[in-house]
Amino acid sequence: MTAAALGVTAGWFWAWQGFVFNAQSFCLPFLLFYVFAVVLAVQRRSSSWLILAGFLWGVLITFDQRLIFFSAILLLPFINIPEFRSNRACLSTVCAAFLIPALCLLYLGYHGALNQMYEQTIVFPLFFRNAGQRDSF
Length: 137
Fold this sequence. Notes:
mainly alpha, 7 helices
């Protein structure tokens, strides 16, 4: 894991090719800090680390929606620690998780860009990205 993290974050520097340093490289520090916060929430039984993990999850899915698959990691503290199953811990984690996505949606809605965001993040990748490509079969 450490070698992969160093290879993605610092390994590009020695052989810069432009296309290697992409969105995943920018999201990796947030992803590592997110996993670290979840681990500390479980180890220390700390709700503040759990809320921070929820906030980082919101940052991750805002800037790279493919990282939504890592949301299962956020369920580990709720499964392992009974104190986190309270309504207060669940609600505060959910509010922290959806703070950044909600602010971004409000910003886009205020400026009239929700339709374009939907087309660029949902419609284009699902229907038109590979429409001009030949099949590989």
